[in-house]
Amino acid sequence: MNRDDMLSALRSATKPWDFIIVGGGATGLGCAVDASSRGYRTLLLERGDFAKGTSSRSTKLVHGGVRYLRQGNISLVLEALRERGLLIKNAPHLVRNTAFVVPNYSWWEGPFYGIGLKMYDLLAGRSGFGRSKLLSRKKTLEMLPAIEPEGLDGGVIYYDGQFDDARLAVNLAQTAVERGGVMLNYVRVTGLIKKDGEVQGAFAHDEESGEEFEIPAKVVINATGVFTDEIRRMDNADAPPMVSPSQGVHIVLDKSFLPGNVAIMVPKTDDGRVLFAIPWHGVVLVGTTDTPVKSASLEPRPLAEELAFLLDHAGRYLVKNPTADDVLSTFAGLRPLVSGGNEEGSTAELARDHSLVISKTGLVTITGGKWTTYRKMAEDTIDQAAVLADLPERPCVTRELPVHGLHHDAESLGDLAYYGSDAAAIRRLISRNPAYAERLHERFSATVAQVVWAVRQEMARTVEDVLSRRTRSLLLDARASMEMAPRVASVMAEELGRDETWIAAQVESYTALAQGYLIPASSDNAAGRR
Which class is 77-163+244-334 in CATH? Predict the structure, then answer.
């Protein structure tokens, strides 16, 4: 997957695209895979990097959604559980079965949550990841030796999926390219082409070269997540708001706070949300919050009260109470919740299932949903968009379509497990140039070879692309990632033909960005016991 090749394909196009997809997050990438695999001429444009926004900042779960079951949204849970089963089959190198324990501190919690999770098992059916069961106090402490023992009555174990969101995004882009799609990052849509009152393409700007494009298409699909309303207003300046952004924040702790491979799920926190503590890539993720925000940003920042909330709740359930000094990184993501015109109230109550809208001028907008259901969202969207474009009817094939990198024994790949079948190619790079085996930092297994691979095969264009989304270093340890930036910039400059000025600018830009992932000292909180 090479950006120069993608630009050449765009420039050489002699007839309208079947679809222009705006947005390179989970939804847009899913639409691109679906459309290109049906044989439609597909172009995806993303103004930043693939999964730059919400789609790289999730809780890293492929799940049915236990909280939606509690809310009575059975249809959403059923759909998500079906999609969870398909995803672990089509991308086993990225999706893993993980055990979750719900700790019980009151006598009634075991039977109450046990019944709910049995319903979860029942809805999953044959695609279930494992059967839930009640745990004694002794067994709960054996599985979670870091759990707060005071007042612990027992627990309930259940099984769900875990994944790497940004790695899946890159693999989806590669999957679409392999099926004839053209995928471009750092190309911003600046307006919509209208003729005879209908949307018939888009104007776009290459953020790297400054080149301008006028691109005809039969249908434009708006899959821009929290920025949905920006594109809708290019179509209709008076379009009412459709999305109410909600911010979810995570903190990242050292593995010592939750040793082992078992995650913790707290069904109900003070604000009514589910809270997770999840082992991931050798660290522990704790999240998430649900805070309404007035406007969307590509780089949302955690609020002090959100950080204090997470530190406090982590301290209630873990023996080792975390403080601000223990936090390796923080990250915030914005959920594109469909408001349905409701301008007030908690975003925790807004719809998580997706909404598909076609404007009077033919702009197709798909928003809402979550990572787990990205494939079904795409199927619904392309079904409708193909009818709108009067294209030949072609069935969706993504239920059985392997995601790029498919590998059924990823564990055997060691540190390169999340690369799946690409791991062999990365190792060949090292065998041809042993210098590529150099590790980027003592805290991480990432090597120079992975930087080279990211540039050559995954369209990484900036130090941030590599450290945030290709290797996840920014999320794992923001300070350490800043120490890696000069070396990464140097390797990238050699690959991209950049000079020392570019290297200096990249390091400066990345350092400023990464500072925002560090927890401010003033946000420290004396975490309390349960």
Answer: alpha beta
